[in-house]
Amino acid sequence: MRTSIMSQMQRSFSIELPKLVPLQLPSRMETHLWYVIPDEVKSTSLLKQYSQLLSPPENDKVLQMRGDKLQKNALLARTLVRTTIARYQTNNGVDPRTLMFKKNMYGKPEVDWQNYKNCSDPPLHFNISHTDSLVACGVTLHVPVGIDLEDKDRKIKHDVLTLAERFYSTDEVTFLSTIPDPEVQRKEFIKLWTLKEAYVKALGKGFSAAPFNTFTIQFKAGTNGGYNLCKEETKKCNRDWKFGLLELADSHYAAVCIEDDQARAPMRVIVRKTIPFVEDELISESKFL
Amino acid sequence: MASLSTTSLSFKAPSTRISQVLRKGSSFQSVTFGRFTSSTSKSLRLQISCAAKAETVQKVSDIVKEQLALTADTPLTAESKFTALGADSLDTVEIVMALEEKFNISVEESDAQNITTIQEAADLIEDLVQKKPAA
């Protein structure tokens, strides 16, 4: 621990941060889904505190975003990850600035736990997604997770079926083409997009490992918002992958995907809204679409 | 791995450039066309191309601006990365399709995944337009 703190000395740790309220770890079949509404974070001094949490490379990436709004959202995304993960650490709280991140061999970001070898905390997994108006982070224990957000009112410029025929599986195209109302069809297309994206992100091996048209995600009637993942070629379904689709902040669809080969119970998603260092609000528990 | 010393090549056209593209696992959060590239395809691609005409770059910029609903004061250059402009995976798919329609070309998914900036899109477009069989 000492060496890692020494190596962080070049960043100014003399600045006092407000205390972070600790959190109870998610249970195995639970995903904790945290979100921030950028428009609700107005204080420039708070945003300045946030930028002090980020590593220099993270700050550089934020500054590369073109425009104030995009920069703010990028800052909030990294802040959300750092503060949320730090809060789950049970040993008297961890300074979010000391968290280190790395990428798996395919480029998926994950926490680098090497500095915490002596801690008894089991590894957490996380995944972020953000749009113009919402930033979210999903956190799980032991199991890989992927999340994706899309604005419910997002306009699709191309014909939805043309897009589906090119990118989705045949069963998904069939499903979409049976929907008579174009507005409903657009919404179902977007929901499917978030589910498929969440799966690819949970898989963490890059898009080329699972092109969208090689798998189908199908709604399971009679379950509380459950979905099946099936391979296009073989039509075989893999029950290790669990999905949840929810509505966030009345404005977005959010898909959560986890891989768990040990549990047959449906997944749970606890949704909380937050402004880091300021407040948390419990929004819902497993309220699926 | 092919190694090519630039001194052994001579090109007459002044605007020709050689770009060496080494595909490695790129940032997971930076969404290239179709998402991040897989690091397992560690192929060294040598691209010899003429830098795209300013006109093509302009047309690509216009399509990108429209798809991403960028305000007039958003700083935008040929080197602008789509992700830095706020494009997500669905945006990049729609941008590629709009480019296909505008230029009457067909972009392979593998090519689409390698485009990360306006300049790269313009270069690919010119390459594909050139390769089209004469009408």
Automatic annotation (TrEMBL), chain A:
Source organism of this protein record: Camelina sativa
Protein name: holo-[acyl-carrier-protein] synthase
Native organism taxonomy: Eukaryota, Viridiplantae, Streptophyta, Embryophyta, Tracheophyta
UniProt keyword annotations, A-Z: Transferase
Entry EC number(s): 2.7.8.7
SUPFAM superfamilies reported in the protein's UniProt record: 4'-phosphopantetheinyl transferase
Gene3D superfamilies: 4'-phosphopantetheinyl transferase domain
Cross-referenced Pfam families: AASDHPPT_N (PF22624), ACPS (PF01648)
Annotated ranges, domain 4'-phosphopantetheinyl transferase N-terminal: 47-136
Keyword Transferase attributed: yes
Entry superkingdom: Eukaryota
Bilayer-crossing regions: none
4'-phosphopantetheinyl transferase domain ranges (all copies): 144-257
Record InterPro entries: 4-PPantetheinyl_Trfase_dom, 4-PPantetheinyl_Trfase_dom_sf, AASDHPPT_N, P-Pant_transferase_sf
Automatic annotation (TrEMBL), chain B:
Location of this chain's protein in the cell: Plastid, Chloroplast
InterPro entries: ACP, ACP-like_sf, ACP_chloroplastic, PKS_PP-bd, PP-bd_ACP, Ppantetheine_attach_site
Superkingdom of origin organism: Eukaryota
Pfam family membership, one: PP-binding
Residue ranges occupied by any Carrier domain in the UniProt entry: 54-129
The keyword Transit peptide appears for this protein: yes
Signal sequence coordinates: none
Keywords, comma-separated and alphabetical: Chloroplast, Fatty acid biosynthesis, Fatty acid metabolism, Lipid biosynthesis, Lipid metabolism, Phosphopantetheine, Phosphoprotein, Plastid, Transit peptide
PANTHER family: ACYL CARRIER PROTEIN, ACYL CARRIER PROTEIN 4, CHLOROPLASTIC
Protein function: Carrier of the growing fatty acid chain in fatty acid biosynthesis.
Family: Belongs to the acyl carrier protein (ACP) family.
Stored NCBIfam families: acyl_carrier (TIGR00517)
Name under which the protein is recorded: Acyl carrier protein
Organism lineage: Eukaryota, Viridiplantae, Streptophyta, Embryophyta, Tracheophyta
Gene name tied to this protein: LOC104722463
